[in-house]
Amino acid sequence: MKKSPRAKSKQHLSPRFRFEPGSYGGVGSFMSSIANLKQIAPNKWDYHFVLVKPDVQYRQEDTAVSEAERDLDMAFRLKQQSGSDHVVAEYLRAQGYVSVTNFNIVKGPKSNRQ
């Protein structure tokens, strides 16, 4: 899984968790992904789980990341409307995201994009 260079500005936070859009896969075959990080100490986060949307693959990494950002934004808009955390999981599942085990996080090169 590649962490989006834009993820820092697009994080969705809750008291002990945060979500970051990204991509999963490799050259020419990128899938949208969403990482869930759990706070383990002040200003210290650990990867809790990763969701991937395996049914759609993109040639360009930015396209996969953009879709993950849109899906995550919509999930949290729905959460605001309903007041329920469960709506986030339900929406992402309905969009085709599944949990991945044994994932590997690769930090992308620094970018000028924020």
Tell me about this structure.
There is one protein chain. By secondary structure, the protein is of the alpha+beta class. Helix content is 27%, strand content 36%. It contains two helices and seven strands, in the order E-E-E-E-E-H-H-E-E. Strands 1, 2, 3, 4, 5, 6 and 7 form a seven-stranded mixed sheet that branches. A hairpin with a 2-residue loop joins strand 4 and strand 5. Helix 1 runs antiparallel to helix 2. The longest helix is centred in the middle third of the chain and has 22 residues. The radius of gyration is 13 Å and the shape is globular. It starts with a strand and ends in a 7-residue tail after the last strand.
Brief summary of the model shown:
With 114 residues, the protein is of the alpha+beta class. Helix content is 27%, strand content 36%.
Q: Could you report the average pLDDT, rounded to the nearest whole number?
A: 84
Q: Count of DSSP E strands? A: 7
Radius of gyration: 13 Å
Strand content: 35-45%
Summed up, the helix count is 2
Cα separation of the termini: 19 Å
Binned, the helix content reads 25-40%
Low-confidence parts: 6-10, 110-114
Structural class: alpha+beta
CA-based shape:
globular
Specify the biggest β-sheet.
7 strands, mixed
Q: What string, H for helix and E for strand, traces the elements in order? A: EEEEEHHEE
